TrEMBL record:
Keyword terms of this UniProt record: Signal
UniProt KW Signal keyword: yes
Superkingdom of origin organism: Eukaryota
Protein name: Peptidase M12A domain-containing protein
Residue ranges annotated for the Peptidase M12A domain, each copy included: 36-242
Keyword match Signal: yes
Gene Ontology biological process: proteolysis
Signal sequence range: 1-20
Organism: Hypsibius exemplaris (Freshwater tardigrade)
InterPro entries reported for this sequence: MetalloPept_cat_dom_sf, Peptidase_M12A
Lineage of the organism: Eukaryota, Metazoa, Ecdysozoa, Tardigrada, Eutardigrada
An annotated Gene Ontology molecular function: metalloendopeptidase activity
Length: 622
């Protein structure tokens, strides 16, 4: 647990007004930061013709060009022991496939078990993607970066297309699975407009019976263009996943492209998007690979129990749906995160029992509607073990609310009702910091044992309390930390200069340090800054931070938010504050959050306008 409590201190979130569907399946992650310039791939030259090999290479070059080399695919030999993508028509068992397939990102299980490659199936035939177009191959290069099929997003029937299930082929393969809905654990599409021009969108004739269409387009012009390039939305999505400049994305008039497609006659063969039940997703069994998948396996493989040797072959049960609990090696974690070391702690998915309670419910003397109208005093991470989705804390008056960010709905989901701060953080002999709390921050323990501490300060009482990480606890009514007694043992109280803190690991030095993003008191709570771990040095400060929106006039709390797979894009800062009406609001800002003291804080990209805090915490705020 030494550094795992701060593994969540680098955000990966994409919420935007012009973005499409992207992966949230925790079985997969984005390609690591150190490999962004060199995502390696090898081609099965024993199968493909010279022309087909050239088409595959051109697809890899095309996406690199459109991403302005921020993401680049680099060809290598299959014998290269570095982790790579192997492009082949054969499964790990040597079976020639009739469908094309790619994992939606780097497959974590393969990395955990020290494999040297994952497969991308590119094949010929009726259902293959070697149809003579660059488009059909380019799609799978986008998918392997984390883009998911636009036509499978959960809201497609109201904003995109209407699938005609009766027209879909059932022989020789049942192909309805190609149009199944994604759920929130697989992909995120909340707040994002439907992208008819996405490289991942099927054509109406794909998987349909002869002379019919598999779906109809809802809005005019009623056509799906088949372009030999990724869309502007695809580019912006990938840019945010890999922290590339979105401004570099080429513009695209999607309506104009759809009109062109409407006026042309498509002769394109159907192309695969998911594996047939008879054709399992691939994982190589050559030297360094570790797993095969049984027929019928979903795209969310589950590692069978009893795996003890990293290099041993693992069989994935047919129809498996649970997410594997795996060790994430340093190579799969972005540069600005800390590697996971625990491998036996199960991933806990807790259903909040509070969801059935009404706004009048009380718990430990804290009303459940305490957060519905007022802006919180402060926010912080839960001081506990590494989990799939980070747990956060909101402080308001005497109360604390434990919650997680819901990536599918972009809302705050409480894990339990609000509780008194003094009971949530119990000291060995008495209460902890005296509420209300004015700011909280994290640091490495002064004992230099690798643990993390959470310090909570109360301006009114001029006291702070430092609690020590307790990695054995995640969800319980008294928190996940051990707090000493008395409650005034702390060396740093930054209340005189800052009003809110969210901590971040800076990996640009060895050993890494924790720097502090803060709300500056001297700015009347309208600007933020980056300070040293002990608040002795102000490295950077913002100018016009709130100018990108018109709702929040004073900031009360800030919080970095992310999921644990590093898949959902660049850092995002949750900003809690007070509006001109005196009510509480929350908004989100996409900005560089690497805690580098030498870099400016901006630019700042506010995601839509901030919303009322009660609208974001719907569990207790009807």
């Amino acid at each position: 647990m030494a550094a795992t409590a701060l593994c969540f201190l680098v955000l990966a979130c994409i919420i935007g007004t012009a973005l499409g569907t992207y992966n949230t399946d925790p079985s997969f992650s984005k390609w690591p930061t150190y490999m962004q310039k060199q995502i390696l791939f090898a081609i099965d030259t024993s199968y493909y013709t010279a022309a087909e090999q050239l088409m595959i290479r051109n697809a890899s070059i095309q996406i690199s060009l459109q991403m302005k080399s921020c993401i680049a695919f680099v060809e290598t030999a299959r014998s290269d022991t570095r982790y790579k993508i192997f492009i082949t028509p054969y499964t790990a068992d040597g079976v020639l496939q009739t469908f094309c397939y790619s994992y939606q990102g780097q497959w974590n299980t393969a990395i955990d078990n020290r494999a040297t490659e994952q497969l991308m199936l590119i094949t010929r035939g009726t259902y293959g993607c070697l149809d003579g177009t660059l488009h059909s191959i380019l799609k799978y290069f986008a998918i392997v970066l984390g883009k998911r099929n636009e036509h499978q997003r959960g809201d497609r029937e109201t904003v995109g297309i209407n699938v005609l299930t009766g027209n879909l082929q059932t022989s020789p393969y049942p192909l309805t699975n190609a149009y199944r809905f994604y759920n929130g654990s697989e992909a995120n599409w909340a707040l994002f407009p439907y992208d008819y021009c996405s490289i991942t969108h099927n054509q109406p004739s794909d998987y349909a019976n002869s002379g019919t269409q598999g779906f109809t387009v809802i809005s005019d012009p009623k056509a799906i263009p088949k372009l030999d390039k990724i869309s502007n939305t695809d580019c912006k999505l990938l840019s945010m996943i890999y922290s590339c400049p979105a401004a570099n994305c080429d513009p695209m008039d999607c309506v104009a492209e759809r009109i062109k497609a409407l006026n042309s006659v498509s002769t394109v063969k159907p192309m695969a998007t998911t594996m047939s039940p008879a054709s399992p997703p691939p994982i190589s069994t050559v030297a360094g690979s570790v797993a095969t998948l049984a027929a019928g396996a979903t795209t969310k493989p589950t590692v069978a129990a009893g795996v003890t040797t990293p290099a041993a072959a693992t069989t994935i049960a047919a129809g498996a749906t649970t997410v594997p609990v795996t060790t994430v090696p340093v190579t799969t974690v972005p540069v600005t995160t800390v590697a996971v070391t625990a491998t036996t702690t199960p991933v806990v998915t807790t259903t909040a029992t509070s969801t059935t309670m009404t706004s009048t419910t009380t718990f430990q003397q804290c009303p459940s509607n305490a957060y519905c109208t007022n802006a919180p005093d402060e926010s912080s991470y839960l001081l506990g073990p590494f989990v799939q989705y980070q747990t956060l804390l909101l402080f308001s008056g005497q109360c604390v609310l434990e919650y997680k960010f819901n990536w599918a709905t972009a809302m705050l989901d409480p894990t339990q009702p609000p509780e008194l701060i003094t009971s949530y953080f119990p000291g060995p002999g008495g209460p902890t910091a005296t509420p209300p709390l004015s700011l909280n921050y994290m640091s490495y323990s002064p004992a230099n044992d690798g643990t993390i501490t959470l310090t909570m300060c109360a301006l009114m009482s001029s006291s702070c309390l430092t609690c020590v990480e307790n990695g054995a606890v995640e969800f319980q009514v008294n928190g996940a930390s051990t707090c000493p007694n008395p409650s005034n043992t702390v060396t740093t109280d930054p209340d005189q200069t800052v009003t809110s803190v969210t901590s971040q690991v800076f990996q640009g030095v060895s050993p890494p340090v924790i720097n502090q993003y803060v709300v500056l008191k001297a700015s009347n709570r309208t600007e933020i800054g980056l300070m040293s771990s002990d608040f002795s040095t102000l490295y950077q400060s913002s100018t016009g931070f709130l100018s990108g929106q018109s709702t929040i006039v004073q900031i009360t709390a800030i919080q970095i938010i992310q999921d644990q797979q590093g898949f959902n894009g660049p850092p995002m800062l949750a900003v809690f504050g007070i509006g001109a009406d005196g009510l509480g609001y929350v908004g989100y800002v996409i900005m560089p959050l690497g805690a580098d003291p030498n870099l400016a804080l901006g630019p700042y990209n506010w995601v839509l306008q901030p919303v009322p805090i009660g609208q974001s915490i719907s569990t207790y705020c009807p």
